[in-house]
Amino acid sequence: MDEAASTGPESDAAPAGKSAPDSDVLLEMDNVTLRFGGVVALNGISFALRKGEIFGLIGPNGAGKTTCFNAMTGVYRPTSGQIRFQGQSLIGKKKHEITRGGIARTFQNVRLFPEMTALENVMVGADAHFKTSVISALFRLPRFWREEREGRAKSMELLRFVGIEHRAGEVSRNLSYGEQRRLEIARALATNPTLLCLDEPAAGFNPAEKEDLLGLIRKIRDTGVTVLLIEHDMRLVMGVTDRIVVLEFGKKIAEGTPAEVRDNPAVIAAYLGVPTDAA
Amino acid sequence: MSAIAEKPAAGSGKSSRQLRGWLGRQPAPVRWLVIIAFVAAAYLLPYVGEVPLIGPQIVTTGVDWSTVLFEMSYYVLLALGLNVVVGFAGLLDLGYVGFFAVGAYVTALLTSPDSVLHTQYGWVVAIPAALAVTMLAGVLLGWPTLRLRGDYLAIVTLGFAEIIRIIATSATWARGDRGFSSIPHPPGKTSDGTPIFGVTDAIPYFWLGLTVVIVIVFGVRNLDRSRVGRSWLAIREDEEAAEIMGVRTIKFKLWAFAIGAFIGGLGGVMFAGETGFINSQTFILQFSILVLAGVVMGGSGNIAGAILGGALISYIPNRLRGIQGPFDTDLYEYRFALFGAMIILIMVLRPQGLIPSRRRAMELKDREKEAAPQ
Amino acid sequence: MNFSGLIQDFGPLTITGLEQGAIIALFALGYTLVYGVLRLINFAHSEVFLLGTYAALISWGWFGLDQNSATPSVGAVLGYLVLGMIAAIVISGVTALAVEVVAYRPLRKRNAPPLAFLITAIGASLVISEVVGVVTHRNPRGVPPLIKPSTVFSIGNMQVSNLQILIIGLALVMMFALDRFINGSRLGRGIRAVAQNPDSAALMGVNKSRVIALVFLLGGLMAGIAAVMYDLKVGVTKYDAGFLLGIEAFTAAVLGGIGNLRGALLGGLLLGLLQNYAAGLFGTQWLHLASFVALVLILLFRPTGLLGESLGRARA
Amino acid sequence: MLLELKDVTLLYGRIQALHGISLTVGQGEIVALIGANGAGKTTTMKAISGLRPIAQGSIVFDGQDITKMRADLRVVRGVSQSPEGRGVFPGMTVRENLDMGAYTRRNKAEIAQDMDRVFTLFPRLKEREKQSSGTLSGGEQQMLAVGRALMSRPKLLLLDEPSMGLAPMLIQQIFDIIVEINQQGTTVLLVEQNAQQALSRAHRAYVLETGRIVKEGTGQDLLTDPAVKDAYLGVA
Amino acid sequence: NKDTSSDTASGSNCGYKLAFFGALTGSAANLGVNIEQGFELAVNQYNEKKGSTCIEVAKFDSQGAAEVAPGVARQLVADKKILGIVGPPFSGESEAADPIFEEAGIPTITPSATRVSLSSKGWKVFHRAVANDDSQGPAAAAYIKDTLKAQKVFVADDQSAYGAGLAEVVKSKLGPLVVNTDKTEGDGKQSDFSALVAKVKSSGATAFFYGGYYTNAGLIRKQLTSAGWTGTLLGGDGMKDPGLAKAAGNAAATGTVVTCPCSPPEQAGEEFNNAYKTKWNVAAGTYSDVAYDAANIFLQGIEAGNTDPAKLNTYLSTVNYKGIANTYKWTSTGELDPTLIKVWAFKFDASGEEKADVEIKVS
Ligand SMILES: Nc1ncnc2c1ncn2[C@@H]1O[C@H](COP(=O)(O)OP(=O)(O)OP(=O)(O)O)[C@@H](O)[C@H]1O
Ligand SMILES: Nc1ncnc2c1ncn2[C@@H]1O[C@H](COP(=O)(O)OP(=O)(O)OP(=O)(O)O)[C@@H](O)[C@H]1O
Ligand SMILES: CC(C)C[C@H](N)C(=O)O
Ligand SMILES: [Mg+2]
Ligand SMILES: [Mg+2]
């Protein structure tokens, strides 16, 4: 693990997130506000992810974490504020453009293509950067063969990577919950992301499985992918992330290294409660 | 029903699955040989009446057998096209007949002496224009409806088809019920100078139709087994998730519409070229619904299923023609009633269709056992 | 285009539009109810309506009434109306239930895919209308002139007849009652629960089969009433009467937001008005075009219909 | 015995998910069911609540054989489940969802009282009383699912991973709530990944592996069982 | 499949078939059935006279639909024993089916397809046994002007080739008397005509000409009456069927006027009417008599030894046949000789039947 990359100069949470003009900023939330009628789900959120880090997003239920993901991936459009990815604004971009631009995600409630096999699910992700379209598929042009072969090989490799290659031919709805979550990760990885967003990937895992997942997330980071992680399991979050932002009621209440966040009284009061036995 | 037993899409679902399994296990040359044999048999269908015993059972009695075969060929074509839209991409289209109509009408407008355009092109010349216009119509229909989900899409497509029908009926240039006559037939002469595509003999039309069907089957199959087909499937399963995985849903949905429209339009072009006369009465809504029933009955999402379904929906009513029913009636009179009953029966017995796609068959078997006691 | 014609006929077209819309709206409820719960376009609902139109006619036939009879006395008319309503409601209700039991329940038992339901629905619709077609030789059957039309009041050249008041009034009353039932009663809540999550509904103690049957029954009842009104208004019924009006009713349901009861009312009335104005402006042959063009335009801007979908949100 | 499963097998199409499960839950107990992903915990719950028919075996509840009984009738008899994945009615408001929980009950006063109790347990739900539940966050929905299950005043409460998706603070709370409900007389069958917490609260527990029960004992026994520790509790 | 020249059954010139081609089912089936029954009656009588089934009847149901017609027509021409065809009754199906008959060279006599353009297609086998719409339209207009003396007329049609064409002619002949016009959908596509009714009512018209078929017309008449409109509904031969009164109710239908390029049934004579009634249990309908004549013309030709389609067709061009409905003599395009054309007006009475009113002289 290369911890080095994560320890930046600033870790103070107080000033608005404009404090990261570094060239290695990958994604920047700049004063993002998102309202649903009367509910303010995000309230002037600012933070920045750096390339290559594992970044945690935590906070009580309903704090706005998933909404953050949805704003980044184009599912919701912020009421105000900016989201920049590699210097470019994401506001108003189509969902598939954002994905091709390098952001991939998983869902809090698993959303696979239930009747497609595990392999096909991953291939859909791999297709994101292929170009075969109707004409080349219709006439079986060389590009079709090349991309089909590549996509298949790559997808098998990813299934192996997440540890479910033996299920490649199984229809995804028949996989167990844990396998489905892994498959979601493989599918997201297949899109060649620069940034991978995981929404509670460990929900419903037992401690042993969580341990596996922790290893997997590190492995992903080691391939050069930046990871943004939403998770309620503190052992996992504290064990794997480089930096953490804490939300409450749509506001950022803390930002810093795991150690800093864990000891932050505001976070303890709002989220952690009595220090968990897990910690 | 047995008429279809000779076609590649053969027989009952069970044996077809065994057949497919068996076929799958054969080396490529054998597979091709079997396929070629089936195709050859299909081309010989006009003469099936000569086959002793079973032949006469198959051939229709009240209506010319070759004409029925030709009709089957364009119904199959329509089913194949609709299968792309509904079966592959999961876009429920209740107004598919609209494209059939557009194809036929553009042909008529360009070729018939009755047309306001006075171009009087030949049939072949009209084809590219007709297909281009239908594809455009497909995209035009697709574009505004992209935001609509499932059943809303269904009603809008139904609305579009009705709009086309009403225009065909009521707009002066479309000539309504008066229609367009003297639409030219496909070109070509035999050695003795008589046209190949005449009016009294429909066999050449059937062969033409069958050939087109075969070409389309290959095209559609190629699409299905590619990134395009995968994208359609993903869209069908979870559109938003697909988009978030980078699938350009809009593009592929439009393609589905365009391809479906293309194939439907082709059916229309062939129909116009054969009858030589079209008017607004042909393109009724029930027609779309019938084709949809064919697709689903055959096995939505499966090419062989679409072929079988399309063939059945045109064969069965025609076969009933000329058969003595109760009270001194022609069974043809009861065709839709019988047909409706058959649809219910088939769907209840085989909810996934007669020849389900392998995927759907599996799915169903799983789902079935899961069903909780009601 | 004939603007002066439209302006001149505006009043009469408005009242006929509302009258027609009221019938469409009641008819549309069946689609909306079933769709709301099962996500199923119940194509056979048009035949539920169709049999209703015949049921009333046949019940009047028992008393020797046919299209050539003279108009009965006022008291008798009331009796006949009630009789016709009961006959239509019973037959439509029973038909709706029968369709559910014969065509849908077996599929549900096998957890069949949604398209399969759509196709059996089409099958059921075909069987019923075609059997009626064969039995009646596809000839129309005339309705006895039960209600002697008379103008009750008029505004400008808009003359409102007793029949029109009856039809519009009855439709509103029925809609209101149904709305109260669905949104206000425990059973209504059960219906909405099954609509939204059948498994969870079962876990709350809701009997899914009974709810589904109830929904079909309610749709059938409304269709039965619509059928009698149709008889009185159109004066004739035929084996394909359901199909024709069914498409419009379904359109109305979608227009208002399918699954939404109030949407059905709004959609129905809107459709009735639009069609009649279009007939005034462009000619009667374009009447249906108006409804479909309106449908497409409205869905473009409101993809789930005017009032949004789902029984669940009927309240909001 | 309040609940008794004998040799229950269950199929998902070609997949056999349960291979002869036998378990009992006594009146007034908290029984925990733990096991890895795909072990069959949820499936067992579904078999008990009647959401999936079982292929073989029998289920007896409160002295009555309910093996073939419809799910909704089991609710009337007193079985209530908070399902995995929450299963809220997305188009209904929070309050309407809770009302649905009391669908089989008639006593308005008691229902109102229970509603208040749920709101005290989960103040967040009170705040969101009129929001339609489909737009709640994952954790909020989880609270709603548990609250809704309580609304039927069940004899037997089935909780499928009630802590899933909840923030750490709430996890503590939810387990406290379970104990409290239990002390008020409700029997609880609990499926949990958070085995540590579950076992320490449960009177008895079963360990499930690939559709079979491989161990049973008191909560404390299993908590200290090295094999269990190793497999389900992670590093201590 | 047997050869044409085989003299099989008893007597000479036997063993052949005559065909009816037209709607036996479908929404305007009554009209087709009337014609078929007149045709079949003639052949039966001929066979009875011969004492054997000399000429067989072959029936082909086109449903009156243009898209169904070609397949059925091909089935027909495949039967080489068929020497002549009575039909197709409707103009639309004629467009689709006649080219096939033309190519096969089988002579046709249509007792009712009245679209003008049918005779201008150069079909040699086409023969029309009645006047075309060019005579019927002016006749209807003349009736409205001269007999009815209406000052305000509303004209509408069902957009069918037949109905629209007829209404067009009527409109142009009536000129300024037309206060408003409209179009409806065709049979079986619309049943609620309240918008049309509202327009008719507010137009102040006292006469309403509808170009269309009896089913729609009956519905319209009924809805007009119940909306309180008391003017006269008029139409062409497509509305001349008791089906109109069945839909409208006799009371409402009473007084409705229809024109027809045909003669009153009484003129066909007791003998025919009784025979028809005995055989079919209903009174002869519109064009039953013409179909009867058409069949007899064919039979006479066969009797004279014209036992193949080509000869029979040539025979038709020489025919001058006096039948029960009219005398028949054809021009080279297959139209009835102009001097033989007649148009009558009929009126629905309180029993729901159309009774001959006046013969309309068109100048
Ligand atoms: N479409 C919506 N309409 C109204 N309110 C919404 C909508 N979506 C989310 N919310 C509200 O916004 C808040 C933030 O929700 P979000 O899903 O982001 O929470 P979260 O931090 O992911 O919580 P959890 O840990 O429970 O998943 C919640 O209170 C939720 O009720
Ligand atoms: N709907 C289904 N169709 C087919 N197989 C299923 C289905 N649901 C579950 N299974 C399979 O049944 C087995 C048991 O699943 P179950 O959901 O009961 O596990 P679980 O113990 O609850 O796991 P988790 O901790 O992941 O929730 C798994 O192998 C799973 O793949
Ligand atoms: C039978 C007739 C009413 C037919 C009509 N004259 C037509 O040409 O279609
Ligand atoms: Mg969340
Ligand atoms: Mg589970």
From TrEMBL, chain A:
A Pfam family of this chain: BCA_ABC_TP_C
Keyword ATP-binding: yes
PROSITE patterns: ABC_TRANSPORTER_1, ABC_TRANSPORTER_2
Region feature (Disordered): 1-22
Ranges where the ABC transporter domain occurs: 27-274
Molecular function terms from GO: ATP binding
Keyword terms, alphabetized: ATP-binding, Nucleotide-binding, Transport
Gene3D superfamilies (UniProt xref): P-loop containing nucleotide triphosphate hydrolases (3.40.50.300)
Superkingdom as given in the UniProt entry: Bacteria
InterPro entries: AAA+_ATPase, ABC_AA/LPS_Transport, ABC_transporter-like_ATP-bd, ABC_transporter-like_CS, BCA_ABC_TP_C, P-loop_NTPase
Protein name: ABC transporter ATP-binding protein
Automatic annotation (TrEMBL), chain B:
Domain of life, per lineage: Bacteria
InterPro entries tied to this protein: ABC_transp_permease, LivM-like
Record's keyword terms, sorted: Cell membrane, Membrane, Transmembrane, Transmembrane helix
Transmembrane segment boundaries: 30-48, 68-89, 94-111, 123-143, 152-174, 202-220, 254-272, 284-315, 336-355
CDD domains: TM_PBP1_LivM_like (cd06581)
Topology versus the membrane: Multi-pass membrane protein
Localization per Swiss-Prot or TrEMBL: Cell membrane
The name this protein goes by in its record: Branched-chain amino acid ABC transporter permease
Organism: Actinoplanes ianthinogenes
Gene it is expressed from: livM_3
TrEMBL record, chain C:
Alphabetized UniProt keyword annotations: Amino-acid transport, Cell inner membrane, Cell membrane, Membrane, Transmembrane, Transmembrane helix, Transport
Similarity comment: family membership: Belongs to the binding-protein-dependent transport system permease family. LivHM subfamily.
Membrane topology: Multi-pass membrane protein
CDD domains: TM_PBP1_LivH_like (cd06582)
Protein name as it appears in the record: Branched-chain amino acid ABC transporter permease
Location relative to the cell: Cell membrane
Taxonomy, superkingdom: Bacteria
Automatic annotation (TrEMBL), chain D:
Entry-linked SUPFAM superfamilies: P-loop containing nucleoside triphosphate hydrolases
One Pfam family this sequence matches: ABC_tran
Coiled-coil region(s): none
Residues in ABC transporter domain copies: 3-235
Keyword annotations from UniProtKB, A to Z: Amino-acid transport, ATP-binding, Nucleotide-binding, Transport
Gene3D superfamilies tied to this protein: P-loop containing nucleotide triphosphate hydrolases
GO molecular function, a single term: ATP binding
Family membership: Belongs to the ABC transporter superfamily.
Protein name: ABC transporter ATP-binding protein
Gene designation: livF_2
